[in-house]
Design brief:
Distance between the termini: 84 Å
Helix content: 40-55%
Oligomer: single chain
CATH superfamily of the largest domain: Winged helix-like DNA-binding domain superfamily/Winged helix DNA-binding domain
Number of helices: 9
Shape: elongated
Order of helices and strands: HHHEEHHEHHEEHH
Radius of gyration: 27 Å
CATH topology of the largest domain: Arc Repressor Mutant, subunit A
Structural class: alpha+beta
Number of strands: 5
Length: 189
């Protein structure tokens, strides 16, 4: 059993409330034994309190619920709020996908064929993942078979890049392209 300096760990609160706090703070499924250890009581009392807590959540108008999983009991977001989870919680991206996203952001916009040349054929799958996550927009090239790839507002929000910096970057890129391709005469001429 765990040793706590303060053995009167929330003794005035009901056990279900204490278990709710434990599940919230641990943030992962816990077995009855683990919960009993943290709550400083026996498994039978924990089991009764878990049933009480699950019943409380079932009758509440709450975004959370207590469920039993193969690994134990968990306090989690109700499945009806999955869309919010997808929209608000950061997506996990692998190193390859992050590098592909960085290449798209630096060249924004970039032709998919140029990206494949730069990053290799795995960029096809990574680009599809980035499109599905909402970080990249893909639109067909008007005179060709490739696609234009560009970062979205979600990319700017997620990586905390404000629109002013994006506009400045675009203006600088445009100016460099104009000068590189002779589209603008030098002011010294």
């Amino acid at each position: 059993m765990m040793n706590y300096e303060n053995q009167e760990f929330m003794t005035n609160d009901r056990l279900a409330t204490k278990i709710e706090a434990i599940l919230y703070l641990k943030g992962q499924p816990l077995s009855l034994t683990e919960i009993a250890e943290y709550a400083l009581c026996d498994r039978d009392r924990v089991q009764e309190a878990i049933i009480e807590l699950m019943s409380d959540y079932a009758h509440r108008d709450s975004a959370l619920e207590v469920i039993e999983t193969p690994k134990g009991y968990s306090l989690q977001l109700r499945s009806t709020f999955e869309n919010l989870l997808q929209a608000l919680v950061p997506a996990e991206l692998g190193t390859g996908a992050l590098r592909t996203l960085a290449a798209i952001a630096l060249k924004n916009p970039i032709l998919q064929t140029d990206l494949i040349e730069l990053r290799g054929s795995t960029a096809y799958q990574q680009t599809q993942e980035l499109v599905e996550l909402g970080f990249v927009r893909k639109r067909r090239q008007t005179n060709g078979r490739s696609y234009w790839l560009e970062v979205t507002d979600k990319f700017h929000q997620y990586f905390e890049i404000d629109e002013i910096n994006a506009a400045i970057g675009a203006a600088i890129r445009q100016r460099v392209e104009e000068i590189s391709y002779g589209g603008v005469q030098s002011s010294r001429e």
